[in-house]
């Protein structure tokens, strides 16, 4: 952040007027005066021979207060009226910080704050089209998108939604009494039996629990005990919405066999999905 006091970016570094040449000296020549191209500008209270060094960026000619306002506006990117696709989200650009060292020093803290606000305050969604085959689709075409999440501020997200797009499945949702959670129910045909997968969203932390068709929805007490008992390996216990993703791109083979190969890939390739 620019400081109103201290070093003044307008301070001029002066260059002493050169000694006048001795015209009586043999071979002496005179040089033309400096042109406007040679000198950036001259201060109003200085002699024509006083030249000001070039500033690295014209923005530094502004006052410290104005510069701080510019940095804040340049990085601000929060709009709660829009929904951002998680796979195209980028956050504020850091290009301005690479202009010069002084701007990097002044605006770096503002940039960091704006980055956190972008991921914490905006609304995000999981979008995408998925390959469908007659018997199964494993979602492998989406793996590059999962890998691209590495290095983003995904772990800061507090508002994310998703939509299950496979119309072959009967998808419904219902509120869980006494909570802000929604239980998403998906009916699908397995190889031998018809099963139901229920996805509980708890502060955007999702997990799957399989139930036989016709069983009543779980109580709030059961929901609290499901999370520690989730049948995944310990290194994956901290996933936020990776299993929502798994539910979106699963194949019938993955569902019926409870194959965690894809979710393991998510855990290994996108560590930012961990708490």
Question: Secondary-structure map with pairings?
Answer:
Elements: H1 64-75, E1 83-85, H2 101-121, E2 123-126, H3 143-148, E3 160-162, E4 170-175, E5 182-189, E6 194-202, E7 205-212, H4 220-226, H5 242-249, H6 252-257, H7 261-269
Parallel strand pairs: 1-2, 2-3
Antiparallel strand pairs: 4-5, 5-6, 6-7
Q: How much is the radius of gyration in Å?
A: 31 Å
What strand order characterises the main sheet? 4-5-6-7
Could you name the ranges where pLDDT drops below 50 across 5 or more consecutive residues? 10-52, 128-139, 163-171, 186-213, 227-275
Give the SSE string: HEHEHEEEEEHHHH
Note the total helix count.
7
Shape: elongated
User: What quaternary form is this?
Assistant: single chain
- Tell me what portion of residues adopts beta-strand conformation: 5-15%
- How widely separated are the two ends? 31 Å
Determine the mean pLDDT.
Answer: 56
Query: Which structural class best describes the helix and strand composition?
Result: alpha/beta
Largest sheet: 4 strands, antiparallel
Question: Care to count the β-strands?
Answer: 7
Helix content: 25-40%
